[in-house]
Structure formats: structure tokens, C-alpha cells
Design the sequence.
């Protein structure tokens, strides 16, 4: 054992030779000195504004809302319309039944059906007026039909004709179904899948050329090669109604002429009408769209992520849901065959794409007008990769909901695909009531729907969400439980005033109208593999059913370091954490199936920090090399490397030898000693041209830095930068890491360095912060998420002892003025130290505008 | 609307008891139905008074109708209509016509000025033994929203 260690030390020394020659001078940066300017992408303006509030004005409450409707916040907003569960000209009938108006059996031009005795059978039903099937009258009043009809599924049934003597037949004419409304071409109970059978030697055989699937004709004539038998029967398997997606519903509605509007259609939700086989009137839709330039889009896929994960994670529930909501056999079959039980990540991804495409098809394939809303998962990038026009995140306070990671994914997807994103604030709070029962509550002050005053999330959380949405670059904001959470009849006169949540909305809206926000500053991208399938919001298995690998856990380790975990606080609300690294990080999936993202997209970021596995391809490796050459920085781990990354690019070679880390780790950048109490494994590196930046106490390389063009490659060696023992891989990290352990000191150090180097100022204090670039300086928001207490049905409570004191050191910024934008207050700063200190009350938000000379620097 | 045969309407108090009702077969049970709109017309004749229901948009200028086809001409003695009921004291306005041939209709119930809230007991209407095969219920108004909701229409 000793020999081996000696040997290791010997090799380490060899590898360290170039290191010793090029040891970094203390004070050097992690990032290259001149990375060049970042590409800035701003979400496109719609009808002259880059930020819209969606707020419906329900006519039902117009009288009660007359005072509220005078508030500026209710003016100039996007209107939304709910048009039901589909764009079908009519909804698919819930009930199916056999309904045959006439069956004519021909030998040449002779109808023989009236010569036969008629018999029939229907699944779970009897057949009424069977004799009418061959009475020569094809009207609906002379039909035979099954009773009862079946809800939510097709009704198998047959009608048999028995002749005294064998008869030769060569044609059958079947009249089935009835007009849904007199005069309409829209039929119900059509025999849509059927076959004519003949009894041959005592058993029923299909008559060739008579099997039909997807029949849409109320009368259908089928000719076949002559066949003789003494018994024939028509076996009907399905009576599904052919459906047409058209703009009929759109034409029936009187939409505003100038105000932007959005249309909600729940085709992606139970009974999952998007999976129906459907015809489309795309031409009619195009005409309608041209007449409505103020149409923002279809709210097409609310919580599509939750629905999809329900498909995978809770198959039993899904079956119940589909049956209860009346999903047709077509829908059930598609979900079961194409989505239900993925074998692996790629088939899960393929299933999600099938779902996405079904949604897209339902909306005339007008992808640019489709909004996909994510709730518990993070499918934002998928929605856009396959063509969604806008994504939305729904935030609430359900268990361990984490709003910052949701924002990181949405903002990253928006920048990766150059499409807008929106924030949907649900006010619900999932928690346990006084009886210990898990309930979801909404704040309701009007008494007009379920909920109660002071229920749901706190007004403070509502406010923090609003400021986050606006300042982090969302294009739209939507408010659930409007108007009931936001209005309150305080004096009992029947006229509503603003509730505590309403006051929050008013103050925030006033802020938004007065204060431009500039460009949300997120110079770091956390890069994930395309098939990540994670819920960074709620945890759980990958794609709802696959055990996480160590690489998956690294993603969570990064997110948990960037946004410290603070859930499970004894029933207290939690959604945000104070974070020392700032809201400076986006999540992107840089190597999607459509090909590696462009350099222009990558150049929006100063650093690409890879977490989890890397999607490998020569094209992607080349793209990254070019990105670095032009001034970008990438952070890899040895576990993520593959043959496409050359040692010239990395400045190092993998030795293939596994070593263990000896704590502490020393930074050659700033001489920091990083205690690493847990056991770590690492892969030994042979440095060629790279320089070490982190060494363990035995001088093993923990991280190295390689200059490449104007940029840098940083390579870390400990196994995914996590300790060896991170608990069982089959357990979701949200439960097994719920106590705040393990810590990830190497990630903490790296994120700390990155954040400090990408910011033009430094900040100390227990606070959440984010930064926006303004044309004449910077905007810094501070959010104190500590000292705010809220239980499921109690009012929010603030602890003034948790007021945060924050010092901002402006470094080299040539500041001309500082103003807090919510209060309008001018903030004095210390000229000698170029810094200022402020207090932020618990649950509060402060927004500081730093005016600077020299183009904002 | 005053010209309709209102005398067919009788107060609930003089209607036969539930026991008598049970003895007679519900002629509408699982019969053929069609409607002006909505996707669950059959729910109104599925024999379940508080299960699925027929729901239809209801605009003032576009009343919604539900038509039952009993299959053959029957003698009608009573209608028992179950509309949506809840805690909101809602009421519906509607009328009911019958026909033997689907060409000539006779109004037998006119509730177009009704303001009595619905409840789980439903609304019963005695008829005078009209012969009819087709029964058409036309909803004209709902006091709480722009929708019509029929849980069950029973015919005896």
C-alpha cells in the first residue's frame, strides 16, 4: 500500500513539473482578461411593449369591480378567453352507441336483406328496433340502436342476417349514425370501424375488402367478390365521430380589435383531445389570424409537463383520469402505445415529442402562436426546440417549489431559442391544515369561490414573484385567482376594493409602468444534456420513473448550491432563497437534436458551466472550441470528457488513474484553503499546457486552466465535483438531501469565483440579488427571503430581526447617482470606498439603479 | 308565450308519490337523443340524476335544445326534469314541446318566466296523456352563467 502511494506521489510530481513552471500568480482570475463583449438578446416587443400583464375583466363582476377597474393596473392589459377543451367544431360526443339506419345486402341490383331474419348483440346493451335495419327507410327515425350508450368508449356490436338458403352477395350499403343537429354534416354514432363477415363452415370470416377504419360517411357502399353463405353479419367495433379542427369557435367570439388577446384551449389536458385523429381547416384559420394581428397566441399546453409526467409516473391514475374524463379509444391507444412506458430517457423524450406534436397539430400547426406552460418539470427547452412560440412557468408554493431554478430554466430557454417567456403566478399553497390533511388553498377575499382571506401564498411571495418576473426578463405576467385574490369588499357596500394581494399588484404595476428594466444580466449558462428529464423544481425520478445517475445528481448539486435548499420548514412557505452567487445563471441545453446551438447564442454567456453528462458530437466540440477561441470560458469535469475534446484544447490528458482527494484544497488564484471534509475521488491529470488552479494538500490537480485563443478551458477532476457518498442513487435527492447535506465546497468555491468575476461590483450580506444592465449603468435588485413566515391558512408574519444589511462595493464603477426605485429615494454612497450599505426588510424587495459614467461602466 | 297550454302544469303538491313514479317505466331511459350543442346529450337519459349531465352554451338569442326520440309514439303522463342544482340558488327558464311526427309541436311546459331555484328533487310536470314520440326541451336562460345543464329528463 505504501509503495503504491509512493508511486502515486512520484507520478504526481512528474505531472506537476509543468505546473511548477507555470504556477499562477496569486490574484489572477479564473476568467480570461479580455473575453470580448457579450451578445445581448432582448425579448421581442409585441404591439409596442416588451412586457404585458394579462388581466381579464370578468363581466359577471363588472358592478362589484367598478372601483378596481379605475385602477391603472387594470388598463392596457392582455385579455384572455377560455374556449374549452378543443378547437373541434363540436366537442367529441362522450357517448357512443350502435346506430344503424339501414343495411342493404345486394346480389347484383337485388336487395336481399329483407329476406333474412335479423339478430344482434351489443356490448353491455340491448338493441332496440332491430327490425328497422332492413325496413327500406334510412331516416334516423327508422334506426335500430343500442341502449344504453356507453360513456367514454366505443360499443362493440353486430347485426346478423340469416337466410333460409345460402345467398350470393357482392355488395353492402350501410347507413349509420345520425346528424348531430338537423341539417348538419356533423354525424354522431357513425359506424367508423367495421367489417362484413360471412359464416363459413360454422365460423365467422371477414369478407375481403369490407373492413373499414375511420369511416366518415353516413352511407357507405362496399363491393366485394361474390360470396355465398346463409349468414352474414356487420360487426361494428367503433362509432367514433370524425372530428374537424376549425376556427368556428374563433369566429363565434367577438375578440377585441386593438387590445392583445390570448385564447386558452385545454386540448392538452384530460380528455386529451389533442390525440384525436382529426381533420384541420388551416386555410380558414390563416384568414382569421390575418384579421386579428393583436392575437398573441393559444394558451395551448397548460401544465403539459405535469400531464406528461403523470402519464409516466402514475399509469394507474392516468387510466382512471382518461376513463373519467371520457378519453376516446383513439386517445387511450395513442397514449398507451407511444408514450406510456418508456424504456429509457430517449424513448421518454420521444414520447414527450409525440405529445408536443399532437398539441401542435391541434392548433393548425401554427407553432409560433403556441404557449407551453411548465409547472413542476422543466420542459421549457423541449417546447421551443420542437417549435413552441412562447414558454411560461407556473409558480406556486407547493412543497419544495423553487422559483429561482424555474426562472433559470425559462430564461435560459428563452435566450437559447430567442423566443419570449412568461410567468404565471398561482397563489395556491400546498400544505397541511390544522387536521394534518394535505390541502391546496387559494387566497380569496371576495367569497365568490373556494378559498379564504389569508390563505394561499403570502402577499410578500406574490410581490417577490412579480419583481422577479419583470426584472429577470419575462415578456408576460399572468395572475391566477384574479379577481378573487386581488379584490375585497372592505366596507360591505358591494363594491370591491383591493385586497392585500391587490395592493401588491397595484404597487408593482406602478413600478413597472415607471421603470424600464434594461437587460437581465445572466452571463453564466449551466449547460445540461438534452435528455435531462429532470424536475429541478420538485425532484423525483428522471422522467418520473428512471433512477437518477450520479451525473443527474450533479445538476441538482449545482442548483442546490446556487439556490440554497430551505424547504420543509415545518409547514412554512418557501419558494426563494437568499443566494450568495446571484441570479446570474441560466440553464441551456446546448446540444439539442437540431444541432449545436449557434455561436451567437453561446456568446450571450461569458461562461458555460457543464453539469451532468455532455451531449457528444464532433460538431458540438468544434462549436465549443470556437466559442472559447473567441473569448468564452467553459468549465468541464473529467467525467464529462469524450474523444471529441482534444488535449490541445484541454491542455491536459486523462491518465485513467483514480486517486483520492486530500483535504484541504488550495486555490492558486487567491490562496484560499477549501476544507473538503468528505471523501472525493478524482481522475489524475497529465497537464501539458494547462496550469493548475486548484490543488489538494498532496498537490494533486483538482482544477486546471488552459488558455485557448481569447478564452479559457477550466477542467475539474473530482468525480462530478461531488463527494463519493451522496446517498443512494435510486433515491430522489429532494428527499435524501432535505437536511441541507451534503455540501459541495468545490462548487461553492467555483461559483463564488465566477460570480465575483462577472460582476462589476461585489456584494456582502444575506440576501438574494440579481442584476440588470441599463444603458447608463446597472440595476441591482435585493430580495430578503428570510424573516417571512406564512402557513397555509394564516396571515404572513414578518420578523424585523431578520432585516438584512447589505453592503455593495462598486469597485471601479464611476457612479454618478444611486436611487432606490420603489421609494424613489436617492441613496448616498461612500465616495472614498465607493460603496453603500442598505437595509432590506424581511420578505421585501429593493431595486437600486446605479447611474454611471462611460457607457455604464 | 301566454298562448301555450299552461294548464298542463300542475303544482308539485298534487303530483304522484315517488313510489308511484318508481312503478312506471321511464320511457326516456337510454332513448335516442340529439341536441343543438354539447357533447353529452345521452347523459340526460342515462338514468342517473346526479351523474353526467348535458351541458350546452346558452345565449339569449340562441336557446339550446335537447330532443328525445322515444322510438315510437307513447302516451305521456308525466315529465320529471332534473337541472343542475347547487348552493347558488340558480334557476333556469325553459319550455318543453312534444310531437308525434317531428313536424307539429305542442308546448306542454312553459317555464320561461320561472325564478324558482332548482334542487335535487327536480321539477315534475303532469301531462294529460299526450301521445308523443319526440320531446324537445328548450333552455332559454340560466341565472348564474351562460350555460345550460340537464342532469336527467324522465318521462312516464
Sequence:
Amino acid at each position: 500500500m505504501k509503495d503504491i502511494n509512493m508511486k502515486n506521489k512520484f507520478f504526481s510530481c512528474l505531472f506537476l513539473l509543468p505546473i511548477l513552471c507555470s504556477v499562477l500568480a496569486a490574484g489572477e482570475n479564473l476568467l480570461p482578461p479580455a473575453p470580448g463583449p457579450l451578445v445581448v438578446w432582448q425579448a421581442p416587443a409585441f404591439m409596442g411593449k416588451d412586457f404585458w400583464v394579462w388581466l381579464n375583466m370578468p363581466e359577471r363582476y363588472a358592478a362589484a369591480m367598478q372601483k378596481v377597474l379605475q385602477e391603472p393596473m387594470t388598463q392596457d392589459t392582455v385579455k384572455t378567453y377560455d374556449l374549452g377543451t378543443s378547437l373541434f367544431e363540436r366537442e367529441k360526443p362522450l357517448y357512443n352507441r350502435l346506430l344503424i339506419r339501414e343495411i342493404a345486402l345486394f346480389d347484383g341490383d337485388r336487395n336481399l336483406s329483407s329476406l333474412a331474419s335479423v339478430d344482434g348483440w351489443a356490448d353491455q346493451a340491448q338493441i332496440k328496433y332491430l327490425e328497422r335495419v332492413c325496413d327500406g327507410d334510412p331516416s334516423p327515425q327508422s334506426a335500430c340502436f343500442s341502449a344504453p350508450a356507453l360513456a367514454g368508449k366505443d360499443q362493440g356490436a353486430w347485426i346478423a342476417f340469416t337466410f333460409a338458403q345460402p345467398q350470393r352477395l357482392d355488395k353492402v350499403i350501410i347507413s349509420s349514425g345520425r346528424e348531430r343537429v338537423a341539417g348538419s354534416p356533423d354525424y354522431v354514432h357513425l359506424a367508423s370501424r367495421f367489417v362484413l363477415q360471412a359464416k363459413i363452415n360454422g365460423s365467422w370470416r371477414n369478407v375481403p375488402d369490407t373492413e373499414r377504419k375511420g369511416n366518415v360517411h353516413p352511407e357507405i357502399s362496399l363491393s366485394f367478390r361474390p360470396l355465398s353463405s346463409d349468414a352474414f353479419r356487420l360487426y361494428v367495433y367503433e362509432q367514433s365521430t370524425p372530428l374537424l379542427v376549425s376556427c368556428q369557435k374563433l369566429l363565434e367570439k367577438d375578440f377585441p380589435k386593438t387590445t392583445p388577446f390570448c385564447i386558452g384551449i385545454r386540448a392538452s389536458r384530460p380528455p386529451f383531445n389533442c390525440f384525436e385523429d382529426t381533420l384541420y381547416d388551416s386555410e380558414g384559420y390563416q384568414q382569421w389570424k390575418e384579421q386579428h394581428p393583436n392575437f398573441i397566441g393559444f394558451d395551448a399546453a397548460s401544465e403539459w409537463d405535469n400531464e406528461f409526467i403523470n402519464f409516466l409516473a402514475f399509469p394507474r391514475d392516468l387510466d382512471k383520469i382518461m376513463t373519467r374524463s371520457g378519453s376516446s379509444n383513439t386517445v387511450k391507444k395513442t397514449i398507451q402505445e407511444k408514450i406510456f412506458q418508456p424504456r429509457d430517457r430517449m424513448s421518454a423524450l420521444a414520447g414527450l415529442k409525440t405529445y408536443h406534436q399532437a398539441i401542435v397539430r391541434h392548433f393548425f400547426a401554427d407553432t409560433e402562436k403556441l404557449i407551453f406552460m411548465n409547472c413542476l418539470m422543466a420542459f421549457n427547452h423541449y417546447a421551443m426546440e420542437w417549435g413552441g412560440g412562447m414558454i411560461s412557468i407556473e409558480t406556486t408554493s407547493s412543497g419544495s417549489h423553487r422559483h429561482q431554478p424555474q426562472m433559470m430554466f425559462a430564461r435560459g430557454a428563452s435566450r437559447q431559442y430567442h423566443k419570449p417567456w412568461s410567468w404565471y403566478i398561482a397563489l395556491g399553497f400546498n400544505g397541511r391544515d390544522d387536521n394534518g390533511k394535505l390541502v391546496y388553498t387559494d387566497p380569496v377575499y371576495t367569497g365568490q369561490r373556494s378559498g379564504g382571506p389569508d390563505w394561499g401564498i403570502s402577499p410578500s411571495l406574490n410581490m417577490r414573484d412579480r419583481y422577479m418576473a419583470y426584472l429577470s426578463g419575462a415578456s408576460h405576467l399572468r395572475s391566477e385567482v384574479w379577481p378573487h385574490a386581488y379584490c375585497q369588499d372592505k366596507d360591505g357596500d358591494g363594491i370591491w376594493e383591493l385586497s392585500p394581494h391587490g395592493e401588491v399588484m397595484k404597487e408593482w404595476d406602478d413600478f413597472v409602468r415607471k421603470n424600464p428594466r434594461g437587460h437581465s444580466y445572466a452571463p453564466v449558462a449551466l449547460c445540461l444534456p438534452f435528455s435531462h428529464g429532470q424536475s429541478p423544481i420538485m425532484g423525483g425520478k428522471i422522467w418520473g420513473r428512471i433512477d437518477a445517475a450520479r451525473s443527474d445528481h450533479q445538476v441538482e448539486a449545482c442548483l442546490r448550491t446556487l439556490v440554497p435548499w430551505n424547504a420543509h420548514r415545518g409547514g412554512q412557505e418557501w419558494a426563494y432563497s437568499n443566494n450568495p452567487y446571484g441570479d446570474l445563471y441560466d440553464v441551456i441545453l446546448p446540444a439539442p437534436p437540431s444541432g449545436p446551438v449557434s455561436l451567437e447564442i453561446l456568446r450571450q454567456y461569458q461562461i458555460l458551466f457543464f453539469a451532468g453528462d455532455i451531449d457528444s458530437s464532433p460538431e458540438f466540440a468544434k462549436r465549443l472550441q470556437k466559442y472559447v477561441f473567441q473569448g468564452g470560458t467553459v468549465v468541464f469535469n473529467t467525467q464529462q470528457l469524450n474523444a471529441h475534446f482534444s488535449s490541445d484544447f484541454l491542455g491536459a490528458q486523462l491518465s485513467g488513474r483514480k486517486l483520492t482527494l486530500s483535504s484541504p484544497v488550495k486555490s492558486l488564484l487567491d490562496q484560499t484553503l477549501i476544507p473538503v471534509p468528505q471523501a472525493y475521488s478524482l481522475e489524475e491529470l497529465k497537464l501539458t499546457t494547462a496550469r493548475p488552479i486548484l490543488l489538494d494538500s498532496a498537490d494533486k490537480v483538482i482544477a486546471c486552466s488552459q488558455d485557448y485563443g481569447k478564452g479559457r478551458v477550466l477542467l475539474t477532476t473530482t468525480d462530478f465535483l461531488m463527494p463519493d457518498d451522496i446517498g443512494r442513487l435510486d433515491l430522489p435527492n429532494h428527499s435524501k438531501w432535505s437536511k441541507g447535506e451534503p455540501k459541495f465546497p468545490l462548487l461553492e468555491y467555483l461559483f463564488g469565483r465566477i460570480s465575483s468575476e462577472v460582476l462589476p461590483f461585489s456584494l456582502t450580506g444575506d440576501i438574494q440579488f440579481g442584476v440588470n444592465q441599463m444603458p447608463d449603468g446597472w440595476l441591482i435588485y435585493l430580495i430578503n427571503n428570510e424573516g417571512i413566515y406564512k402557513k397555509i391558512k394564516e396571515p404572513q408574519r414578518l420578523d424585523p430581526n431578520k432585516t438584512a444589511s447589505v453592503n455593495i462595493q462598486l469597485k471601479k464603477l464611476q457612479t454618478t447617482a444611486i436611487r432606490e426605485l420603489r421609494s424613489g429615494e436617492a441613496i448616498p454612497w461612500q465616495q472614498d470606498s465607493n460603496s453603500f450599505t442598505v437595509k432590506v426588510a424581511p420578505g421585501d424587495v429593493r431595486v437600486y439603479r446605479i447611474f454611471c459614467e462611460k457607457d455604464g461602466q | 308565450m301566454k298562448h301555450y297550454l299552461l294548464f298542463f302544469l300542475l303544482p308539485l303538491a298534487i303530483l304522484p308519490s315517488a313510489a308511484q313514479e318508481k312503478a312506471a317505466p321511464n320511457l326516456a331511459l337510454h332513448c335516442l337523443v340529439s341536441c343543438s350543442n354539447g357533447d353529452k346529450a345521452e347523459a340526460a337519459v342515462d338514468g342517473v340524476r346526479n351523474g353526467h349531465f348535458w351541458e350546452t352554451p346558452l345565449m339569449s338569442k340562441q336557446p339550446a335544445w335537447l330532443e328525445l326520440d322515444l322510438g315510437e309514439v307513447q302516451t305521456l303522463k308525466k315529465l320529471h326534469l332534473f337541472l343542475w342544482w347547487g348552493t347558488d340558488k340558480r334557476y333556469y327558464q325553459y319550455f318543453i314541446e312534444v310531437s308525434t311526427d317531428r313536424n307539429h309541436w305542442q308546448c306542454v311546459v312553459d317555464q320561461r318566466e320561472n325564478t324558482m331555484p332548482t334542487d335535487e328533487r327536480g321539477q315534475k310536470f303532469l301531462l294529460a296523456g299526450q301521445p308523443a314520440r319526440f320531446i324537445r326541451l328548450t333552455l332559454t336562460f340560466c341565472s348564474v352563467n351562460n350555460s345550460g345543464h340537464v342532469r336527467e329528463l324522465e318521462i312516464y
Remarks:
- Chain A is about 20% helix and 30% strand.
- Residues 1-25 of chain A have pLDDT under 50 and may be disordered.
- The first strand of chain A starts at residue 52 and ends at 54.
- The two ends of chain A are 57 Å apart (CA to CA).
